[in-house]
Amino acid sequence: MSSAGQVTVTFAGCGDAFGSGGRYQACVHVRPPGAAPVLLDCGATSLPALRRCGLDPGEIAAVFVSHLHGDHFGGIPFLILNGQFAGRASPLTVVGPPGTARRLPELMECMFPGSSAARRRFGVEVEELRPGAAVTAAGVRAEGFGADHPSGPDSPALALRLTLGSTVIGYTGDTAWTDALIDVAAGADLLIAEAYYRDKAVPYHLRHADLVAHAGELASRRIVLTHMSADMLDHLDQARFEAAADGLVLRV
Ligand SMILES: [Zn+2]
Ligand SMILES: [Zn+2]
């Protein structure tokens, strides 16, 4: 079977913030056919996660960030610095929620003082994406949807919907259930869905039980679970959906 025209999705990291199950933090590598790859989130552990999968961080043309928590954007300073020291020449675009243009340089300065203003051979452009808006970066269109997950004042968390040619990938990011997820999933080829706990109520996160309760409304072709706690990982045999694992490769 030919893979021409298919988008390759590699779950370089699909863990929660705390390394549950030995998994790396959120870092989904998305390669459209014949084009540079992009990332959905770039948690602090993303460089080792990518290298484990044999993926070159220097190729990544854009990072789409769901929200400004360390396990979702904490790897971007390493990505930028790696490009600086590896002689990267191609530009990098970071698309993230409002606040990204301020908090990314702050993060860089906190981690590596002086790094945010260092001279580089490649440009880093930040594009802020509001809920209800869309931007295109590296040929990928991203729509932002309001998520229910506090991640800083004036910095609303997003669920994302990427369009790559004729392929649509939805991503819940971290969020309590919100009906916006129905729109994120509608007609998508793949929905990457947080399933933090099975049925224990944890504020501002999705549970497997929420996805089961709303399964009839989530009209994507495929649902793959991510961002799972140890409790969820220990009961994967009871999951009603496919589960991601670090290194899992899908063609969608
Ligand atoms: Zn979060
Ligand atoms: Zn998270």
Provide tags for this entry.
globular; alpha/beta; 252 residues; binds zinc ion; seven-stranded mixed beta sheet; single chain
Characterise this structure.
The protein is of the alpha/beta class. It is built from 7 helices and 14 strands. It has helices spanning 46-52, 70-73, 76-85, 100-111, 180-185, 208-213, 230-233; strands spanning 8-13, 27-31, 38-40, 62-64, 92-96, 124-128, 134-137, 140-146, 158-164, 167-171, 190-194, 223-226, 242-243, 248-251. The strands form 2 sheets. It has a 7-stranded mixed sheet. A 7-stranded mixed sheet has the order 7-8-9-10-11-12-13. The longest helix is centred in the middle third of the chain and has 12 residues, at 100-111. The mean pLDDT is 97. The structure holds zinc ion (2 copies). Residues 67, 69, 149, 151, 174 line the site of one zinc ion. One zinc ion (ZN) is lined by residues 67, 69, 149, 151, 174.
Number of strands: 14
Q: Which regions are unreliable across 5 or more consecutive residues at pLDDT < 50?
A: none
Cα shape: globular
Average pLDDT metric: 97
- N-C termini distance: 13 Å
What is the element string, with H for helices and E for strands? EEEHEHHEHEEEEEHEHEHEE
- The amount of helix comes to 10-25%
Strand order of the main beta sheet, please? 6-5-4-3-2-1-14
Bound molecules: zinc ion
Beta-strand content estimate: 25-35%
The biggest beta sheet reads: 7 strands, mixed
Structural class: alpha/beta
Q: What quaternary form is this? A: single chain
Radius of gyration: 17 Å
Structure annotation, total helices: 7
